[in-house]
Amino acid sequence: MKPFRYALFFIMMIGAMTTSYAQESTDVIFHKSHEPKKQSAPYSDAVQVGNMYFLAGQMGMDHTTRTVVDGGIQKETEQAIENIEDVLEQHGMTLDNVVKCTVILANIEDFAAFNEVYTQYFTKKPARTTFAAKGVPANGNIEIDVIAVK
Length: 150
Prior knowledge:
By secondary structure, this protein is an alpha+beta fold. The chain has a single domain, classed as CATH 3.30.1330.40. The protein is 35% helix and 27% strand. The protein has three helices and nine strands. It has helices spanning 2-24, 73-90, 111-121; strands at 28-31, 46-49, 52-55, 58-59, 61-62, 67-68, 98-105, 127-132, 142-149. Helix 3 links the parallel strand 7 (98-105) and strand 8 (127-132). The chain is globular. The mean pLDDT is 88. Keywords: Hydrolase, Signal. InterPro entries: RidA, RutC-like_sf, YjgF/YER057c/UK114. It holds the Pfam family Ribonuc_L-PSP. Belongs to the RutC family.
C-alpha cells in the first residue's frame, strides 16, 4: 500500500507544480478603449488573461454624445448590449463568446422589462447574476459587465 501512497503523492506534486507554473506564465493584457473619448479613463475596457476577456461594465450610454439614451430600461438595455458588442468586436468576438454576465439594475422592478430585451441578444444563455443597487452612474437604469472566452 505504501508504494501507492508515494505514487499518488508524486502525481499530486507534479500536478501542483504544473498548475502553479501555468498561472505564473499567463500574461495579463490591459487593452485601451477603442473610443478616443475614453482613452484617459481610469480603467480598461477589456482585460485579457489567456483566452479570457473581462469587460468593463457598459451602460445604456450613447458614446457619441456621452449621454444615457432616452426610452427607459429597455432602450438602455439595448444600448448597453450594443456597447458590449462593440468592445467584443474589437477583439474578434461576438455575444456568443460571452460566458458570464453581471447585471446591475437601478430598480429591481425593471427586471422583467430588462429580461425581454436581454433574452433577444444572449441566445446562448451565459451564466448571469442580476441585482439592484441604489444607484447606477450617470443616473442610468442599468450596467452590464461580461466575461468572454475566445
